[in-house]
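STRUCTURE:
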Protein backbone atom coordinates (compact mmCIF):
# COMPACT_ATOMS: atom_id res chain seq x y z
CA UNK A 1 0.00 0.00 0.00
CA UNK A 2 1.26 3.51 -0.72
CA UNK A 3 0.21 7.17 -0.76
CA UNK A 4 0.49 9.22 -3.95
CA UNK A 5 2.15 12.01 -1.95
CA UNK A 6 4.01 10.42 0.95
CA UNK A 7 5.64 13.77 1.84
CA UNK A 8 3.50 16.70 0.73
CA UNK A 9 4.31 20.34 1.44
CA UNK A 10 2.20 23.03 -0.17
CA UNK A 11 -1.21 24.65 -0.21
CA UNK A 12 -4.09 22.96 1.58
CA UNK A 13 -6.59 21.48 1.30
CA UNK A 14 -4.98 18.73 -0.75
CA UNK A 15 -6.23 15.32 -1.90
CA UNK A 16 -4.06 12.39 -0.85
CA UNK A 17 -4.78 9.04 -2.51
CA UNK A 18 -3.88 5.78 -0.80
CA UNK A 19 -3.66 2.76 -3.12
CA UNK A 20 -3.65 -0.91 -2.17
CA UNK A 21 -2.89 -3.68 -4.66
CA UNK A 22 -4.83 -6.84 -3.81
CA UNK A 23 -3.38 -10.07 -5.16
CA UNK A 24 -4.79 -13.59 -5.02
CA UNK A 25 -6.07 -16.34 -7.29
CA UNK A 26 -8.26 -15.17 -10.14
CA UNK A 27 -11.99 -15.04 -9.33
CA UNK A 28 -11.36 -14.78 -5.57
CA UNK A 29 -14.06 -12.56 -4.06
CA UNK A 30 -13.02 -9.89 -1.56
CA UNK A 31 -14.53 -7.26 0.69
CA UNK A 32 -12.50 -4.33 2.00
CA UNK A 33 -12.60 -1.02 3.80
CA UNK A 34 -10.07 1.74 4.52
CA UNK A 35 -9.69 3.21 8.01
CA UNK A 36 -7.40 5.26 10.22
CA UNK A 37 -6.34 8.77 11.00
CA UNK A 38 -8.92 11.44 11.71
CA UNK A 39 -10.83 10.38 8.60
CA UNK A 40 -13.97 8.31 8.21
CA UNK A 41 -13.84 4.56 7.76
CA UNK A 42 -15.07 3.76 4.28
CA UNK A 43 -18.07 1.54 3.79
CA UNK A 44 -17.40 -2.11 3.00
CA UNK A 45 -16.85 -2.52 -0.74
CA UNK A 46 -16.64 -5.75 -2.72
CA UNK A 47 -14.91 -7.04 -5.81
CA UNK A 48 -13.12 -10.02 -7.25
CA UNK A 49 -9.60 -10.68 -8.46
CA UNK A 50 -9.52 -10.55 -12.28
CA UNK A 51 -7.62 -13.01 -14.47
CA UNK A 52 -4.53 -10.78 -14.22
CA UNK A 53 -4.23 -11.81 -10.54
CA UNK A 54 -4.49 -8.41 -8.85
CA UNK A 55 -6.80 -5.46 -8.34
CA UNK A 56 -5.90 -1.92 -7.22
CA UNK A 57 -8.23 -0.10 -4.85
CA UNK A 58 -7.98 3.61 -3.98
CA UNK A 59 -9.03 5.77 -1.05
CA UNK A 60 -8.87 9.55 -1.55
CA UNK A 61 -8.99 11.85 1.45
CA UNK A 62 -8.94 15.63 1.54
CA UNK A 63 -6.49 17.03 4.08
CA UNK A 64 -6.92 20.57 5.39
CA UNK A 65 -4.62 22.51 7.74
CA UNK A 66 -6.49 21.24 10.82
CA UNK A 67 -5.72 17.62 9.86
CA UNK A 68 -2.17 18.06 8.52
CA UNK A 69 0.75 16.07 9.93
CA UNK A 70 1.44 12.35 9.79
CA UNK A 71 -1.53 10.40 8.47
CA UNK A 72 -1.64 6.61 8.65
CA UNK A 73 -4.32 4.97 6.55
CA UNK A 74 -4.96 1.23 6.55
CA UNK A 75 -6.97 -1.31 4.61
CA UNK A 76 -8.55 -4.52 5.84
CA UNK A 77 -9.35 -7.10 3.17
CA UNK A 78 -11.32 -10.32 3.54
CA UNK A 79 -10.65 -12.80 0.74
CA UNK A 80 -13.30 -15.51 0.25
CA UNK A 81 -12.56 -18.69 -1.66
CA UNK A 82 -15.20 -21.28 -2.51
CA UNK A 83 -13.84 -24.72 -3.30
CA UNK A 84 -15.60 -27.35 -5.48
CA UNK A 85 -16.41 -29.44 -2.39
CA UNK A 86 -18.39 -26.49 -0.95
CA UNK A 87 -15.72 -25.53 1.57
CA UNK A 88 -15.24 -21.78 2.03
CA UNK A 89 -11.97 -20.27 3.23
CA UNK A 90 -11.66 -16.73 4.51
CA UNK A 91 -8.33 -14.94 4.77
CA UNK A 92 -8.07 -11.50 6.38
CA UNK A 93 -5.13 -9.26 5.49
CA UNK A 94 -4.26 -5.72 6.50
CA UNK A 95 -1.79 -3.16 5.19
CA UNK A 96 -0.96 0.46 6.03
CA UNK A 97 0.76 3.46 4.49
CA UNK A 98 1.82 6.86 5.83
CA UNK A 99 1.66 10.33 4.37
CA UNK A 100 3.07 13.48 5.94
CA UNK A 101 1.22 16.66 5.00
CA UNK A 102 2.65 20.12 5.72
CA UNK A 103 0.35 22.96 4.75
CA UNK A 104 2.12 26.05 3.44
CA UNK A 105 1.20 29.18 5.35
CA UNK A 106 -1.02 31.59 3.48
CA UNK A 107 0.81 34.56 2.04
CA UNK A 108 0.18 37.69 4.04
CA UNK A 109 -1.79 40.42 2.33
CA UNK A 110 0.23 43.58 1.74
CA UNK A 111 -0.41 46.34 4.24
CA UNK A 112 -1.68 49.68 2.95
CA UNK A 113 1.82 51.17 3.30
CA UNK A 114 3.30 48.32 1.21
CA UNK A 115 0.74 48.88 -1.56
CA UNK A 116 2.17 52.28 -2.19
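SEQUENCE:
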Amino acid sequence: MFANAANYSGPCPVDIVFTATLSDDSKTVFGYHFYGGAFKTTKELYGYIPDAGSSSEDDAITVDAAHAGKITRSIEVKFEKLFPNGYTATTVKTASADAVVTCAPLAASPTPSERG
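REMARK: Residues 1 and 20 are 4 Å apart (CA to CA).
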